[in-house]
TrEMBL record:
Origin: domain of life: Bacteria
Keyword presence, ATP-binding: yes
Record-linked Pfam families: AAA_lid_14 (PF25601), HTH_8 (PF02954), Response_reg (PF00072), Sigma54_activat (PF00158)
Listed InterPro entries: AAA+_ATPase, AAA_lid_NorR, CheY-like_superfamily, Homeodomain-like_sf, HTH_Fis, P-loop_NTPase, Sig_transdc_resp-reg_receiver, Sigma_54_int
Protein name as it appears in the record: Sigma-54-dependent Fis family transcriptional regulator
Organism: Parabacteroides hominis
UniProtKB keywords: ATP-binding, Nucleotide-binding, Phosphoprotein, Transcription, Transcription regulation
Residue stretches making up the Sigma-54 factor interaction domain: 143-372
List of residues that carry 4-aspartylphosphate: D52
Transmembrane portions of the chain: none
Response regulatory domain ranges (all copies): 3-117
Amino acid sequence: MGKVLIIDDEKQILNLLSRIIGLEGYDVLQATSFKAGIKQVEQHDPEVILCDVYLPDGSGVALVSEIKRLRPLSEVILLTAHGNIPDGVQAIKNGAFDYITKGDDNNKILPLIAKATEKATAAYRQSKTIASAVGKQYTFDTIIGRSPAIQDAVALARKVAATDVPVLLTGETGTGKEVFAQSIHRHSSRNGKAFVAINCSSFSHDLLESEMFGHKAGAFTGALKETKGLFEEANGGTIFLDEIGEMAFDLQAKLLRILETGEFLKIGDTKPLKIDVRVIAATNRDLAKEIAEGHFREDLFYRLSVFQIHLPPLRERTGDIPLHVEAFVSALSSKMGKTIRVISPDYIRILKQNPWKGNVRELRNVVERSLIIADSDTLTPDILPLNMQNLQATPDNGYSGFDLSGVEKMHIQKVLKYTNGNKTETSRLLGIGLTTLYRKIEEYGL
């Protein structure tokens, strides 16, 4: 059904709405303040947010803008106690789905949530359905890296692309699994058809089932019309199931049936549909361990891993870091109106010392932030995040740490100025959560 976040500081109303909405089958989240609401949105990515206009630490009208910046595909319904028309008009301008008056419009809440959920779900599907024309930017030649580990992975991917067997991509978050998946599709006989991607960890159980397989009209509350699932959208092409290890056990059985028979049932339907789809799956989990613990089907694992490719983490191929940095600088600097002529050896040396838990994705964010901070045509260590600056080697090859709270304050001020005070964008560039940014702003009196 999807996730609904309710933000209201009146506990009685919060609990009442939670019960009403929960009984309809939605996963209900709660928050009692502006900041708590933002945190819930960041952590759980709800499809619909039901929010009071008046919150103890901010305005629900302003919160609409923050949520739409943070999660543009989520829908926000504003609740007002007094039917304040100017607030309602401004909320709609800020991107709200609708606004209703507490008490008087209680009978409208459930139908409105159903419509908002359907809109959010459709928008997400559209954003994740990638036409093959878009996929043409991904080829094996564009995969960066000269290290043996990444070259071996590319060689394997080239070989399997020409076949039609399922592929399982393994590796840590940010190692480029979707890039590999799209490259395999691009070099396959299915290139002219759709490439559809879905992150299995982004949905609740019921919503993931509906997203993958579709549903008939009336299959559940809010199912106002028949909807295609992503497998049907991908017919003839490729579907990429990211974070497959997060998929619920019973849904794994449905996926296994598709792999074995090429058939599936829509929710609420009795007649199976026949499809022709290549499945590429990816995971950062140890599926052997998941099988041993009873969380993943062994038979599905063997069907998915007909051909398995492991993507190495960035810390195991630090020699490729300069290549990635050059590529990111080339791609990003022109968009920012910056000219970078020199990348300091010390800048690269510090990057090579970082553990890169977020891998290539994290490296890109760091380079992007460096370009924003840079006041010259040279990338130097002093524009790196403070935690990385502390990795500078000392003469005895150890590491030295020192108090840089003053520099951190100046750094945050600089990024806030660059984003014209946009805290959501500032938190993204700084690589910290929005709530952490608010805390630091308060701590430093910014």
